[in-house]
Amino acid sequence: MFGLIGHLTSLQHAQAVAKELGYPEYADQGLDFWCSAPPQIVDNITVTSITGQKIEGRYVESCFLPEMLANRRIKAAVRKILNAMAHAQKHGINITALGGFSSIIFEEFNLHESKQVRNIKLEFDRFTTGNTHTAYILCRQVEQASQKLGIELSKATVAVCGATGDIGSAVCRWLDARTDVAELLLIARNQERLQALQSELGRGKIMGLEEALPLADIIVWVASMPKGIEIDPTVLKQPCLLIDGGYPKNLATKIQHPGLYVLNGGIVEHSLDIDWKIMQIVSMDVPARQLFACFAESMLLEFEKLHTNFSWGRNQITVAKMEQIGKFSVKHGFLPLLLSH
Amino acid sequence: MGQIAASPEIDFHSETYKDAYSRINAIVIEGEQEAYDNYIKLAELLPEEKDELIRLSKMESRHKKGFEACGRNLQVAPDIEFARKFFLQLHQNFQAGAAQGNVVTCLLIQSLIIECFAIAAYNIYIPVADDFARKITEGVVKDEYTHLNFGEVWLKAHFEESKAELAQANRQNLPIVWRMLNEVENDARVLAMEKEALVEDFMIAYGEALSNIGFTTRDIMRMSAYGLAAA
Lengths: 341, 231
Known about the structure:
The complex is a heterodimer of chains A (about 350) and B (about 230). With about 350 residues, chain A is α/β, with parallel strands linked by helices.
């Protein structure tokens, strides 16, 4: 059995969902209430592979809300993630993906040190960040969407915003090793990490965001932040492909400009309908088929009976592992989301 | 995002700590005493389970002695008077249930609510306890899970006929738990136990118990949050 640990995108969203699902006890409550709310398994999921194989999964709602980070309710945020993980393990789930902010919180606050949750000793090999699959899908989106737009990678400059993160660094490795991208622009806050990445790749220009964006034919956005960032579309090249792989998705709705193509990054579309209720709530365009690639990773690992923390720790994602998860992804019928026109 | 602020060093011998401890320690001692009495009463109501219930009652009695030692270790005199008032309403509801032979109500109060409350409080206390109390509490919390299990197993076996009474007893007693938590919020904070963590752990333990008995997620979310908003 596979699991997905998810959460809602805002307090307002959480209240609306609780109301829609008929939980008045949760619907009218403020942030304090959600800070005390326990994790729940709210959906049973069946996924069928194009090979015909069927697997079962559970959706664990952690009751985490991004406002907890914004309001410095860090202890509550940390409790949500650890409790959701303990809940998943207690219910015998073999491999669970940490969706949304879950994996970010896990990394940022060193939760590897918090193995003991009440009477449960967390077994970290039952969990995966799903970042390997996300990075793989982002790279395939770069390759396929650019082709569709007539942008030749061999002549293209690709800017990776959030380049030193777990996903960003993996994207850089793949683009370097597996494509003939002309130029890589590396954007991140930490100079030390940027230099380490640059020397690992043996290429790439370290640049500030404002300086880099006007040079890029393709922008891969993988920085995650509780609040979005303003991008001035008039300074961008035309055409420009912007792949928003950050969490939460914050660029697509904000920037609209002729010649600018914004693609939801790190999203896959399954070839067959997935039997679940929860995705109608988490605002995907095609809820029966579209999902975060990190969630799909736990499904792939379950299909392959690879019950191990495939993606774990920071900056461990190799091109070989991306190829491996990519093979499973294709085999079971997951496709990178592409531009709809 | 920065690091989690490390908990400041707790001075177990400060007057502020000892003052708060005199009430929290008393609650624990009185709680174990009432648990002892309640299991003896349950043994009368469920004669076929008598041996097991008497065994559980003896464990509660041992726990009480352990917690008395924790108070002595910090040279704190427990405020038992405060603790009796603290438990009064739940105690009365248990007594009333027992007098009418409402086993289900009695099991919900003792085996589910009080045990889950204890499990939550002990789990939150363990990381911030003094060394002596930590060892004692770690031993106790293991036992409390087996006590919770007794109620779960019995109620699961009698789920259909107990369902309505459980829902009614939940409505009657859960709001009392929230009031009790509010009453000790400040003292608990002095011991570095946060109310929101206590509420969360209670809801986790209680929700799991309700799930083991046979309630659906929908029932659990309603029942375990009942009255919390108003508290």
